[in-house]
Amino acid sequence: MKKINHITLKIEIDEDGDPTDYLGVLVEKYEDIHRLRNNIAKHCETWIPVDPENPDGEWFSPANHLPHNPKSWDHVSEEKKDKVIAKYGSLRKADIAYAYEDCERLRKFYAGHWWMEGIILKASIAVSDDGTHWAHDEIVCSLWGIESDGGEDYKATIVKDLSAELEHELTLWGFSHDEILNAFMEMTTA
Fold first, then answer.
1. CA distance 144 to 120
2. Each residue's pLDDT tens digit in the chain (190 positions)?
3. pTM, rounded to two decimals
4. Torsion-angle region of residue 174: left (phi > 0), alpha (psi -120 to 50) or beta?
5. Cβ neighbours of 26 (radius 10 Å)
6. Strand-pair category, 116-128 with 134-147
7. Strand order from edge to edge, sheet including 24-27
8. 86 by DSSP, 3-state: which?
9. CB-CB contact of 44 with 158 (8 Å)
10. Cα 60 versus chain centre, distance
């Protein structure tokens, strides 16, 4: 005998999620850049002031876009490149603008305007040989490192993918399609 007790959907803050890996590095003082530069230069060769009019303030080393490399645009169609050039003046200026967008995004992260999350889909199941003594287990499918401001459509897609994964796992445990469907219909949000 086996039964699905319930399925829960939960979104938690990802304490290990760190966007600096893909956005870049912020430092508060220009002097700190010289101290850090030897270690960071292997990964990021370019530093830009957060505020170009205050070079003694914060500096940013983007993980992408700078230094400008025309080959980085090889995968982009000529039509899209023309639109970017029309908007920014050149591909190089677009790279600089994109680096500043990443800088602003990172600053918003540190200010607490967004964070990383994990979406967890959990099925609580019970199995018994005699119907009296039950062994309980949980099947968990999750995805972490999701930007909190990623939008509801994006999160709904993740939940849909995790649901398919959980359905597959429950099938491996021998649950029927109807049992699984009924459990999903009664899913709760924690």
1. 8
2. 999 999 999 999 998 867 677 888 777 655 555 555 555 544 455 777 888 888 777 888 888 888 889 999 999 999 999 999 999 999 999 999 999 999 999 889 989 999 999 999 999 999 999 989 999 999 999 999 999 998 999 999 999 999 999 999 999 999 999 999 999 999 999 8
3. 0.75
4. left
5. 16
6. antiparallel
7. 24-27, 59-62, 48-49
8. helix
9. no
10. 21
Contact by Cβ (8 Å): 103, 20: no
Q: What is the pLDDT of residue 42?
A: 47
Backbone angles phi, psi at 158, to 5 degrees: -65, -45
Please check whether residue 127 is in contact with residue 137, taking contact to mean a CB–CB distance below 8 angstroms.
Answer: yes
Q: Rounded to a whole number, what is the distance in angstroms from the first to the last CA of the chain?
A: 27
| Tokens matching residue 120 | 């967890």
| Helices and strands, number each (H, E), in the chain | 6, 7
Alpha-carbon distance values, 108 to 14, 114, 142, 151, 176 (Å): 17, 7, 26, 16, 46
For the chain, give the number of residues.
Answer: 190
User: How far is 31 from 35, CA to CA, in rounded Å?
Assistant: 7
